[in-house]
Design a protein that fits this description.
heterodimer; A: alpha/beta; Glutathione S-transferase Yfyf (Class Pi), Chain A, domain 2; Rossmann fold; 16 helices; 8 strands; B: 107 residues; mainly alpha; Fumarate Reductase Iron-sulfur Protein, Chain B, domain 2
């Protein structure tokens, strides 16, 4: 094959991500799971790298969580999405960036549905006008926040205080990447690398000095699956999915997991505690678990922010062994101090999984 | 252990490297038609016994290909032969069931 031909084929897998001027929409569940992640996304992209990122205080949930739990019909979810588009239009922006993977999937699904069924778009416009007297223009570009960090990965690497290297051995840290299903499986061509070469997270890890670890169940779901977790009787499915992933990655001894979805870091993190209690097994070294990070947390660590400011104390799995490998300084006594330096309640320690 | 109200399900993953396919191999020798099965499920749809017993020739073949035991399911078959009539590949499913019974009897 001639070189230009290969270049043409490869270009199909690339995303032309606009460099600036973004309307940022936060996630409803991330703000309770890992609240510092979104704060640091804004801090890194807007304050550190000087990009134009706009937020509206009128923004609400995208409706994706209710839609995927089958509690609202798609038309309702689309009308909520239309309202977010109206907020973006009113603010004068054309590029939408979603913090949540499900929001990204929801926005993309809405736009693709309207492309296929224009009469539905007309009806949603009418619904929105009747509901709140708003009109909107469709965004020119919809990205996930991890696309932006992927685009800026080399700028972040230039400003890095530490690299993803084991300071005792000098070897790259072994990182497992886990891409959210609603990013890579609903509309694979909308993600960086498409279905065949999804590299949104592996690109970050490699730019920041780490080594990406492949393992058999790499593309398996984390187990959240909405109703799998939200209906208590189904939670066995959720934890079994996670268990399958950990059993599969265990022989490769990863140092950490990086994720770009709200649910994945939460469930890969919390289920390690449940699995340890139910089976007596832990997957990290010396009785610890494998720490799970959002891409903003990992970017924050690389950029030298304080681990407790990044909210790493809200993780179930202890992050201290990873911080020690990375050579990041931290104050163990400050772990459970809030942002105002007031003492937070200390959690009860698990019986099997080693934590601090 | 705390009572979470839910527990891990048994893994259904199949390791092709560690499977014992002796039973399936023996069946292939006695009823070579089993190799042509495309798992369409017509046999299961037509099965009289499936409604009350979960009998399914399709499931039976798949389980054998995964090295699982199917003796319990065999007991549900009434040998009515409807599955043979509907099989688009013309597999003699009745003979397949009888062959399996003979294999188990020998064991």
């Amino acid at each position: 094959m001639i070189y230009q031909g290969k270049q043409n084929i490869w270009s199909d897998y690339q995303k032309e991500i606009p460099h600036d001027h973004w309307f940022y929409v936060r996630s409803c569940i991330r703000q309770s799971f890992f609240p510092a992640s979104e704060y640091f996304f804004v801090k890194i992209v807007r304050d550190l790298l000087g990009k134009d990122l706009y937020e509206s205080k009128h923004h609400t949930t995208c409706g994706g969580i209710a839609y995927h739990c089958d509690t609202i019909p798609q038309e309702t979810a689309m009308t909520i999405v239309a309202r977010q588009f109206a907020l973006m239009t009113e603010a004068g922006y054309k590029n939408l960036v979603a913090s949540c993977i499900t929001s990204f999937g929801n926005y993309t699904e809405t736009l693709e549905t309207w492309r296929e069924f224009p009469e539905l778009e007309a009806r949603i416009r009418e619904n929105l006008w009747k509901a709140c007297r708003r009109e909107f223009e469709k965004p020119e570009y919809v990205a996930h926040a991890s696309d932006i960090v992927y685009m800026l990965r080399n700028e972040i690497a230039e400003k890095a205080k530490v690299r993803l290297i084991d300071k005792t051995t000098g070897e790259p840290l072994r990182i497992v990447e886990h891409i959210g299903c609603h990013y890579s499986k609903m509309f694979p061509h909308k993600g960086v690398g498409g279905a065949e070469y999804p590299c949104v997270l592996s690109g970050m890890v490699e730019s920041w000095g780490g080594q990406v670890i492949d393992y058999p169940e790499r593309r398996h779901c984390c187990g959240f699956g909405f109703r799998q977790y939200l209906v208590k009787a189904n939670r066995g499915y959720s934890v079994s999915n996670t268990h399958k992933k950990f059993e599969s990655m265990e022989p490769y001894h990863p140092d950490a997991i990086i994720t770009n979805c709200p649910g994945c870091p939460y469930f890969l993190d919390r289920w390690q505690y449940v699995i340890s209690e139910q089976t007596g097994k832990t997957y990290g070294r010396d009785g610890f678990g494998i720490p799970v990070f959002t891409y903003e947390e990992l970017a924050g660590l690389v950029l030298g922010y304080d681990p407790w400011d990044l909210g790493l104390q809200v993780h179930q799995v202890a992050v201290e062994p990873f911080l020690d490998k990375l050579g990041v300084a931290y104050d163990p006594d400050a772990k459970y101090l809030g942002v105002n330096k007031e003492e937070l309640l200390k959690p009860t320690l698990p019986t099997v999984l080693k934590c601090f | 252990m705390p009572d979470f109200g839910f527990s891990l399900s048994k893994s259904s993953s199949v390791s092709l490297d560690s499977l014992d396919l002796g039973l399936y191999g023996e069946l292939e020798r006695l009823e070579p038609g089993v190799k042509t099965c495309m798992a369409c499920g017509s046999c299961s749809a037509a099965c009289t016994a499936s409604v009350w017993s979960g009998m399914s020739v399709r499931k039976l073949i798949l389980n054998l290909q995964r090295g699982k035991d199917v003796e319990k399911m065999l007991g549900s078959c009434m040998l009515c032969g409807k599955c043979s009539m509907v099989c688009p590949r013309g597999i003699n499913t009745r003979h397949l069931i009888l062959s399996l019974c003979r294999i188990y009897k020998k064991q």
